[in-house]
Amino acid sequence: MFDFARTGAFLAAGFLMGSGCAPDRGGASSAPPAELSETDRVGIRAADSAFMTAANAGDADAVAAVYTGNAMLLPPNAPPQRGQSAIRKFWDGFFQAYTVKFEIGSDTIEGRGDLAYNVGHYRFTAVPKARSEPGMADEGKFVEILRKQPDGSWKYVVDMYSSNLAPSR
Predict the structure, then answer these.
(1) What distance separates the 2 farthest-apart alpha carbons in the chain?
(2) At residue 101, does pLDDT exceed 80?
(3) Would you say 135 and 126 are in contact if contact means Cβ atoms under 8 Å apart?
(4) What are phi and psi of 165, to 5 degrees?
(5) CA 92 – CA 37 distance, rounded (Å)
(6) Contacts of 93 (CB under 8 A, 6+ apart)
(7) Measured between alpha carbons, how far is 47 from 91 in angstroms, rounded to an integer?
(8) 30-54 per-position pLDDT tens digit
(9) DSSP 110-167
(10) Closest CA relative to residue 143, chosen from 91, 104, 97, 114
(11) Residue 114 neighbours by CB distance under 10 Å
């Protein structure tokens, strides 16, 4: 019979011992990257604010600018959108069909050094530009992975979101 408690304790001890025995990297500090500062948290919220402002204006170029060049957008029920160009095209298609109103908020922002994640919630409405299309409203959650840029701004590296609402039948 497998002893989970004993194996877990063994793995934890091995991890702790291994993490304390990092090889010398030629004088490089073995200190972990610094925790996020309040300035970093403000910058991460600014990325969300820029996204929301651009989306509400229907500006796919400005939305795409919030993502890194090699970012991935992982929308529900659709394939991954890889790179700024694909992400721009994805959002432009949406903005061509709908006038949107986004509201987003952060629930948890954590990170170290130049990487962070942001877990939050969103609500949006989409009014069709063509009368033949139905409107929609949604609310849900998102997870973003962001990287600090050389200019100090933060951009999305991975953006994934999903609805809290039950699928329509």
Answers:
(1) 66
(2) yes
(3) yes
(4) -85, 145
(5) 34
(6) none
(7) 16
(8) 788 899 999 999 999 999 999 999 9
(9) EEETTEEEEEEEEEEEEEESSTTSPPEEEEEEEEEEEEE-TTS-EEEEEEEEEESSPP
(10) 104
(11) 15
